[in-house]
Amino acid sequence: MREIVLDTETTGLSPADGHRIIEIGCIELENYVPTGETYHQYINPERDMPAEAFAVHGLSEAFLGDYPLFADIADAFLAFVGDAPLVIH
Q: Over the stretch 4-33, which tens digit does the pLDDT of each residue have?
């Protein structure tokens, strides 16, 4: 059984307030054992980084500014996940 363990970092917790995902990290498991296949991507949020979020993950808007937008990485992310169940932290 293939599963994907996924973790994210964000600019905050409220999409209604314009908060966005800034980092996605995944590992693939096969029968509960890591396969060595991973997916990692920083994402440009096109917005400021609230001090509270920066205190959690240390990722600044200046650091993220040269990374792709979510729309530019969505297909690669979905291809990695495929139809596997997600285990999200």
A: 999 999 999 999 999 999 999 999 999 999
Which residues, 6+ apart, have CB-to-CB distance to 87 below 8 Å? Answer: 3, 4, 5, 6, 29
Question: Phi/psi at 57 (nearest 5 deg)?
Answer: -115, -15
Q: Which secondary structure element, helix H or strand E, spans residue 54, and what is its range?
A: helix 51-57
| Measured CA distances, 23 to 6, 54, 68, 70, 74 (Å) | 10, 13, 11, 10, 12
Token output for 3: 């599963």
pTM score: 0.93
Sole residue written with tokens 């970092």: 9
State the average pLDDT over residues 36-65. Answer: 97
